[in-house]
């Protein structure tokens, strides 16, 4: 695979197209599963930017970044090898890590599930969606859930999408912008998170630009992503069905669906032992890592409320230390570290709209950092509170990690949350991967 194709082709700085509003389209009225059968694109003013991106995706081999409700995706036509290869090279993604595809409606999924015969005709007119997935589709789509489907042979998908596996991962995003874009392109979009490989996933267009400026030509900026962590990936083709990656749909929610009562966890977090290798190839790679060293305090660790262990601070000589603190439920401002008064706050991410469940404010507060023994100023402390419940925490997590990196933090202390609280498992999975030290 050519590693430098997008670099050569992306001659100038990446263009960011702001897309405002949310009236991109709607589902055609129906009932039950059919309720989400067909997505119609509206003629809103923002559709102009979407049309430009759609034309680009149809004709070029460089991917386009676009927002979904989980994180920004780096999209390409999933049916064309050259376009899909463009994703791997822009991200520096290992080629054995398959991509998920995104569809705007069930009609496009059914199209992919039909195999193509040699004369171009399609086989399989009946509904090929496995029964096991129907309750999940009804309840969670459009939304942050990716399901594994058998890949027909021959397949309409470029072989690079599945990286040689017999299945493909698919989801229908909840973002009207994402669904309209895919509908306008007319083919499923393969899209991993739009970060450089190993970095935290991007939840704003600015994050994408940080990682991929000059490596791609176009970013659609639709504001910050409400969920903030990636989709849950499940495999219902085995018995019992399994969760391959925790994400925006919790395991408890899955268990409420017929056929999914006994769903098992097939991923491993740091420190957990188990026999099997990770079933989602992506779960074996280093991930979600800022440049700074991350020290994670598990929610269950004794003495958690007291905050950061002062003795654990490894400091440089002089006053150039930059220490970040990301707080959730218990830690007070500054995470218990000795510091001066906090200066004026700086807004980091716009609070989400008031109708959202996760209306959090995310601000960076700065103070002088003092040495525990003699009180001398030894640098600065940057404090971010990302909220108390797992939905807010998920929404702010990657933004907070990236912001502290941008401000050159040497170390980031993070207060963890509980795995069994809603989407807490997804938050903790990402944090355990990002951490170089875990206090449990
Ligand atoms: O929320 C999301 O899922 C975002 C947005 C952009 O939709 N996308 C995303 O894609 O996170 P990516 O490529 O970063 O993660 C997809 C995960 C990887 O861990 C990959 O290994 C796994 O899904 N995966 C994809 N296809 C698979 C397959 N056929 N079998 C097993 N695992 C698969
Ligand atoms: Mg990713």
UniProtKB/TrEMBL annotation:
Listed GO MF terms: ATP binding; double-stranded RNA binding; L-threonylcarbamoyladenylate synthase; tRNA binding
Subcellular location as annotated: Cytoplasm
A matching Pfam family: Sua5_yciO_yrdC
EC category: transferase
Record InterPro entries: DHBP_synth_RibB-like_a/b_dom, Sua5-like_dom, Sua5/YwlC_C, Sua5_C, TC-AMP_synthase_SUA5
EC number of this enzyme: 2.7.7.87
A biological process from GO: tRNA threonylcarbamoyladenosine modification
An example Gene Ontology CC term for this record: cytoplasm
Gene3D superfamilies associated with the record: DHBP synthase, Threonylcarbamoyl-AMP synthase, C-terminal domain
Transmembrane spans: none
Keywords linked to the UniProt accession: ATP-binding, Cytoplasm, Nucleotide-binding, Nucleotidyltransferase, Transferase, tRNA processing
Catalytic reaction equation(s): L-threonine + hydrogencarbonate + ATP = L-threonylcarbamoyladenylate + diphosphate + H2O
PROSITE patterns noted in UniProt: YRDC (PS51163)
SUPFAM superfamilies: YrdC/RibB (SSF55821)
Chief place where the protein resides: cytoplasm
Every YrdC-like domain range: 47-249
Job description of the protein: Required for the formation of a threonylcarbamoyl group on adenosine at position 37 (t(6)A37) in tRNAs that read codons beginning with adenine. Likely catalyzes the conversion of L-threonine, HCO(3)(-)/CO(2) and ATP to give threonylcarbamoyl-AMP (TC-AMP) as the acyladenylate intermediate, with the release of diphosphate. Required for normal translation, by ensuring translation fidelity at the level of codon recognition, appropriate translation initiation selection and maintenance of reading frame. Also involved in telomere replication.
Family under the similarity heading: Belongs to the SUA5 family.
Designated name of the protein: Threonylcarbamoyl-AMP synthase
Organism: Xylaria hypoxylon
């Amino acid at each position: 695979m050519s590693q430098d194709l997008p670099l050569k082709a992306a001659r100038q700085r990446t263009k960011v197209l702001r897309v405002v509003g949310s009236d991109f389209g709607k589902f055609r009225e129906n009932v039950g599963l059919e309720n989400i059968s067909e997505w119609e694109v509206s003629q809103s003013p923002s559709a102009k930017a979407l049309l430009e991106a759609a034309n680009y995706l149809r004709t070029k081999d460089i991917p386009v970044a676009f927002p979904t409700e989980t994180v920004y995706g780096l999209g390409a036509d999933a049916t064309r090898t050259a376009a899909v290869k463009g994703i791997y090279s822009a991200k520096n993604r290992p080629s054995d890590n398959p991509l998920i595809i995104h569809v705007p409606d069930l009609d496009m999924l059914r199209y992919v599930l039909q195999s193509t015969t040699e004369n171009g005709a399609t086989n399989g007119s009946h509904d090929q969606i496995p029964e096991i997935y129907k309750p999940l589709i009804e309840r969670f789509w459009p939304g942050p859930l990716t399901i594994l489907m058998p890949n027909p042979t021959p397949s309409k998908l470029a072989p690079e999408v599945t990286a040689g596996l017999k299945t493909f991962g698919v989801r229908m995003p909840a973002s009207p912008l994402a669904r309209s874009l895919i509908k306008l392109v007319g083919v499923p979009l393969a899209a991993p998170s739009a970060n450089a490989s190993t970095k935290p996933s991007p939840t704003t267009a600015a994050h994408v630009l940080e990682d991929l400026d000059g490596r791609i030509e176009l970013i659609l900026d639709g504001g910050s992503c409400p969920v903030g962590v990636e989709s849950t990936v499940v495999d219902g083709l085995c018995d019992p069905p399994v969760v391959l990656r925790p994400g925006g749909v919790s395991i408890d929610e899955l268990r409420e669906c017929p056929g999914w009562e006994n769903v098992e966890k097939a991923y491993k977090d740091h420190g957990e032992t188990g026999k099997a290798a990770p079933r989602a190839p992506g779960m074996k790679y280093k991930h979600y890592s800022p440049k700074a060293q991350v020290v994670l305090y598990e929610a269950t660790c004794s003495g958690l409320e007291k905050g950061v262990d002062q003795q654990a601070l490894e400091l440089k000589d002089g006053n150039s230390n930059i220490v970040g603190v990301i707080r959730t439920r218990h830690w007070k401002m500054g995470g218990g570290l000795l510091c001066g008064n906090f200066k004026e706050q700086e807004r980091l991410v716009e609070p989400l709209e008031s109708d959202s469940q996760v209306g959090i404010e995310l601000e960076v507060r700065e103070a002088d950092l003092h040495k525990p023994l003699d009180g001398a100023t030894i640098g600065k402390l940057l404090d971010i509170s990302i909220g108390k419940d797992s939905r807010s925490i998920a929404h702010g997590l990657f933004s907070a990690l990236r912001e502290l990196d941008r401000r050159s933090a040497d170390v980031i202390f993070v207060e963890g949350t509980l795995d069994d609280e809603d989407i807490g498992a997804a938050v903790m999975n990402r944090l355990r991967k990002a951490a170089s030290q875990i206090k449990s």
